[in-house]
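Lecture notes, unit on protein representations.

Consider one protein chain, 189 amino acids long.
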Amino acid sequence: MVEEWIRWFEEWGTWGILLSLFCGIVIHILGLIPSVVVTGANVAVWGPLWGGLFSWMAEVIGSTVAFLLYRYGKKKWSVTRKIDWRWLHSFDRWSRIKQFFALLLARIMPLLPSGMINLLGAFTRMYTLDFMIATAIGKIPSNLIEVLISYGFLKISQSELNWIFLLMGGVIACWLFWKREKKPLHKQE
């Protein structure tokens, strides 16, 4: 799949940058495809610096647009339903700076899905500018990790990649075997 993205970006030449930004923004709005796919293609075509920058820009813009769309949908939805969540009332009572740092912390955590953060943020009274700035700063570490992983995979030969997967498979098999051995035996009556 990444090869197709690479081919598209290269075929479009300089316009490939806009195509890359558009694809990254749409991916972040939909939240269905991992962004590492576009990041990998960007790094392959434009290198780690520019490819990473284009990916980061698409993440920030896409997350902000998703936030605004979710907020618009929430306003339409809340006309027919009352939203009465305790965590939401608590978050809305926090100071603007505390809200900003809470979102920044959520963005920095790599295991929290970006789409979920966008959706939950839309239910709060957080300012759009604060959301965008916290997203821009908080996305730097995760984007850097994606760029480094993508760049590393581009530099690894196929035989090295096969050895890595073989080693990972061996470690997982050993762990599963060890886990199975640690289970206590059930008494039979």
